[in-house]
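Cross-check.
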Amino acid sequence: MLRLPTTWGAAEMTVKSRPQIYLWSGLYFFYKLYQNKGGKIMENLTESQLNTQLQTLIASISDLNEESIGQIQKRLDSLTKPQGSLGQLESLAKQLGGIQQTSSPKILKKAVLLMAGDHGVAAEGVSAFPQEVTPQMVYNIISGGAAINVLARHANAEVFCTDVGVAIPLELVGDVIQKRVANGTQNMTKGPAMTRQQALQALLVGAEVADEKIRAGYNLLATGDLGIGNTTPSSAIVALLTNSAVESVVGRGTGIDDAGLIKKRQAIEKAIEFNKPDPQDALDVLTKVGGFEIAAIAGSILQAAASRVPIVIDGFISTAGALIAANLAPKSIAYMIPSHGSVEIGHRKALAALGLDPVLNLNMRLGEGTGAALTFHIVEAALRILEEMATFADAGVSEQSS
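Predicted model, tokenized:
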């Protein structure tokens, strides 16, 4: 087994040590090629082939089933309560019915799809934490010690962590889904964060992970993210796709001070000015100022929608991914369930652009899928109301007079 120290700090991460790390990365890549023998390796596909796969996925997304929604509305109106009095719980029940095309939607298994990746723009001092925290947190998550693990266990859900592009290659451990596109993105202040081909690869990585879990019987998914500096590309995406001023969407992320906040804003403004992303082309935005984990989140949303599976959207980074998905495939919005309203200032603008209202407001800003895992309970509560609550006729209660 190739192994990196789980607490490799900045002092150990010398220039002299980096060639060894990237040698390990190369060995790891060929190991995975061997492991995946007989399958089509995504890295070998051309940009055109990848784009064809993406367009096929997008074309397979259809509208919600209105007949099922109407049947659930009729059932909800017959329950022992004033009509509409359970608010978003009723909306969720109808949404799930429309997604599953049934008047009796069921949740069988739940999964948080956590995508991990690093960002070259971290070199601009946009985060309060060093980049080596990303792999350290991956190890914490697969050991079950992170906040997302606790909240997922409480929701009887599983967490699946995918390495889409952590800068320091991880040791070969079975609990990490290895689908690396590159060792982190490039510094977006000096050029595009990734190539268009890499953006397509990362989108399809997310779709592939979601598809694997859906085929394994998970029919309620949630997005999650991990990556030092990822609120910076997320802010850039939100600014561009909501036509907002940079300063109105940039928050403090992991807790940067005032000087750090200024650096962060300047880095985003510089990246946008240098790369000139086209706000009418979500793939161009993703390529020039995005992140691998953000792309994978968007891809997982597209696959969930194509497979008629609801997906709970976590916080700011996940919602940036949702904006990419929505701009690529507007019908995918109907399959999204918002979770919480992050304290990141750009989050509400991103949700508003999607037409979504958060279910929870808990002043959270952690990411990882934590808000989404909490929202699992609300989604299941909506179905319990639909299944278990008595009707006026069942309970012998007089209905509202007309």
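The chain has two domains: 13-44, 110-385. Residues 1-40 have pLDDT under 50 and may be disordered. Passed to J.P. for a second look.
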